[in-house]
Amino acid sequence: MLEGRRADLIAIDLAMELDIARHIVLAGDVDDFRARSVAPEWQWLFDRVVSSSAIETVSAGSYDALYRAVTRRLLELATVTAAPEPALALVVWDGPKASTFDHTADFAGLAGVSGMAIRHIPIRPADAVTEYA
With bands split at pLDDT 50, 70 and 90, how would you rate the model's confidence at 1? Predict the structure, then answer.
C-alpha cells in the first residue's frame, strides 16, 4: 500500500517524467528537511526530485506555524501557476487525525477557502476518489 506521506514525492517524480515544471516548498533548508522528514527508504527519490526542481524554503516560528506558512505558499504558487484557470488541490489522505494538528486537513481547508476545487484521493485502495466543489 502506498503511504500517503510520500504521495508528494511520487507526484513530483511523475511531473519530472512528463517534463512539467516543479516548484517545491520546504519547511526549513533542504538538508534539515531531509533529515527530519524523509524516511531513509525515500531519500533517494527526495534527492532526485530536489536536484531537478525549483526549491523554496520557508522559516517561521513554531512547527505548526512553519507548516502553515508552507501550505499558504503552496496555495499561492498553485493559484498563480494555474491562472487564468482555477487551481485544483489534490488531497491524499483518509480523513482528519483525531489526536494531533492535521496539516493535510489544514491544507484542504485553506484550499477550499481560497476557492480551489479539491480532489480527495484516499490512501486505502478500496476507497473511491471523491470531488468537492
Answer: very low
79 phi, psi to nearest 5 deg:
-65, -45
pLDDT at 125: 63
User: On the CB side of 83, how many CA atoms lie within 13 Å of its CA?
Assistant: 6
Say whether pLDDT at 13 is over 90. yes
pLDDT in tens, 44-66: 999 999 999 999 999 878 888 88
Q: Which domains does the chain have, with CATH numbers?
A: 6-121 (3.40.50)
| Distant-in-sequence, close-in-space partners of 75: CB < 8 Å, separation ≥ 6 | 87, 89, 107, 110, 111, 114, 116
C-alpha cell at 51: 536536484
Q: How far apart are CA 40 and CA 128, in angstroms?
A: 30
Q: What are the grid coordinates assigned to 11, written together?
A: 507526484
Q: What per-residue string of b and e applies to 38-56 under the rule 16 or more CB within 10 Å gives b?
A: beeebeeebeebbeeeeee
3-state secondary structure 69-117: HHHHHHHHHHHHHHCCCCCEEEEECCCCCCCCCCHHHHHHHHHHHCCCE
